[in-house]
Amino acid sequence: VRSGEILGLAGLVGAGRTEVARAIFGLDDADAGTIEVDGTTVRIRGPRDAVRAGIAYVPEDRKRDGIVPQLSIKDNISLSVLDRVAVGGWIRPGAERTLAQHKAEELSVSPPAIAPRVDTLSGGNQQKVVFAKWLSTRPRVLILDEPTRGVDVGAKSDIHTIIGELAAQGTAIILISSELPEVLAVSDRIVVLHEGRVAAELPRGAAEHEVMHAATGEVSS
Fold first, then answer.
1. C-alpha span between 169 and 8 (Å, rounded)
2. Angle between the 153-168 and 123-135 helix axes, to the nearest 10 degrees?
3. Of 46, 121, 175, 213, whose CB is crowded by the most CB atoms within 10 A?
4. 191 touches 1 (CB < 8 A)
5. How far apart are CA 31 and CA 22, in angstroms?
6. What is the pLDDT of residues 93-149, one digit of tens each?
7. DSSP string, 50-84
8. How many C-beta atoms lie closer than 10 Å to residue 97's C-beta?
9. Which has the closest alpha carbon to 170: 129, 143, 141?
């Protein structure tokens, strides 16, 4: 995936899309292959290594893996960058609050206050908090697994706008979605997986039937 590009990963359930994302982010062990950032091979043994390499991951299951429900908006946003808001192991409340407020405002999290618990928010705003948490790491590569699942139409539009703005700023984005129209509408290039392997690589403007033929194993490359 190139800087400023939105690369869509398409495929049927079980094709291996999430497994690829989890392996890149160090959540699962990769059986083979290498991961390169800016042409340099990086060894990723866990999420900490991935973040250091400039990779961030918005997971498929927001409630299980993306948020800590009982914590505040502020606490959730700052979780990924505690080293930046702490000195000598002690969190600086002012620095933490400033960082969280900035990100919450940037992504239009509602309510604008950062004190409420995350589990009191709508699904769309919870997802924006997950985005804010990982964007605080200033990633060069952002992996989005089902970024609009379980959100309303307005939040979905907001998230698509955020994705487009990030790409315009040079972030490399890998988008995984089970909604094929979303993949076709948002992606600059589409890689289709079938049974854990790349079945096709298609350009922007590809037709839905081309993706489905590849996803079902009717086309290979």
1. 18
2. 20
3. 175
4. no
5. 12
6. 999 999 999 999 999 999 989 999 999 999 999 999 999 999 999 999 999 999 999
7. HHHTTEEEE-S-IIIII--TTSBHHHHHHGGGGGG
8. 15
9. 141
Give the chain's length.
221
Q: Of 141, 139, 126, give the one whose Cα is nearest residue 21.
A: 141
- 3-class secondary structure per residue, 150-168: CCCHHHHHHHHHHHHHHHH
Give dist(CA 156, CA 147) in Å, integer: 8
Residue from 181, 171, 184, 183 nearest 143 by CA: 171
Q: Are 147 and 179 in contact (CB under 8 A)?
A: no
- The closest of 123, 136, 122 to 83, measured between CA atoms, is 136
Is residue 56 within 8 Å of residue 137, measured between CB atoms? yes
Q: Which amino acid is at 81?
A: V
The per-residue pLDDT for range 30-51, each reduced to its tens digit, is 888 999 999 999 999 999 999 9
Residue type, 175: L
pLDDT confidence of 156, banded at 50, 70, 90?
very high
State the DSSP code for 88. T
User: What's the token pair of residue 180?
Assistant: 């094929």
**What distance in Å separates the CA atoms of residue 61 and residue 69, rounded to the nearest whole number?**
13
**Full DSSP string of 17-30:** HHHHHHHHTTSS--
Amino acid at 163: I
Which tokens is 160 given? 């698509």
